Amino acid sequence: MKKGIAVAGSVLVDKIYQIAGYPQKGELTQIKGISRAVGGLVPNVGIDLKKIDGSLTVYACGKVGNDEEGEFVKSEFSRYGLDMSGLKTDAKEKTSFTDVMSEIGGERTFFTYAGASADFGESDMDFDKTDADMLHLGYFLLLDKIDNGDGLKILKKAKAKGVKTSIDLVSENSDRYSLVIPCLQYTDNLIINEIEAGSIAGIEPEKGNIRKIAEKLKEKGVKERVIIHLPQFGVCLSESGYTEIPSFDLPKGYIKGTTGAGDAFCAGSLYGIYKGYTDREILEFGSMCAAVSLRVPDAVSGLTDEKGIRDFCKNLSRKFLEIR
Fold first, then answer.
1. Counting Cβ atoms within 10 Å, is residue 28 exposed (0-12), middle (13-18) or buried (19+)?
2. 3-state secondary structure at position 104
3. What is the pLDDT of residue 140?
4. How far is CA 233 from CA 15, 105, 290, in A?
């Protein structure tokens, strides 16, 4: 019986434009480079997991259009060895895509077209074909059907089948975070950033509030772990206690782009959970994956296998972090 991790939800194509800086309204900035890559939770986390461990079965569950971008997604999944039995094709809608404006060494801004991924829902999730031990679902706040109740239904169905669940969100400036709260009691592992965590908990995501936020989210129903990643550090709250580790102190000019760094952290954390790592080991490996991801402008090409990631990060030092 084939087991592994099912990664479900957002599937799209990223068109990445490297820019020197983001212009003000009415101004112009030069594009320094253009590239194309698969993007969204399913490609980013799924491909990262396969690169970390090629022997791991990773199911890609989502929806693409019957178009050239959809074929590109399938070719990339095939190239990396993902199981596509859970990938659907929508004959009417285009493959979702995002134009990514990535400042060299800085932040990125996204312009996205919802496309076929927005129609992914409970009826597209076949647990008989995706016989996995774990399910990672997202992005909430980006997929219409997932946000309008199908995400909760998928999580309930997964839990009923004994599948460990985890979810992820996108960050947005809205009051919609409350729609995620009913899902938390069917979520074993919540892996999100400090903005999303603070918005769900209703607590300002300031540095001194992160433990309080994690505790609030655990109270709202998360079963096993609340994992929160920030630029400065990462935290994990579980029945084993509260764990904090600093991020790597990366040298000037090291960061080539931040697209996919959060998903790389997530993939590393999921792999650690799957392998039975301690909370500290989960955070350490998640941060290693994020650090390796930051050395390239796209979302997935930075990662290598687990040994390569660990060997590379031996040459990096961590920031000083005052334990709180």
1. exposed
2. coil
3. 97
4. 29, 19, 12
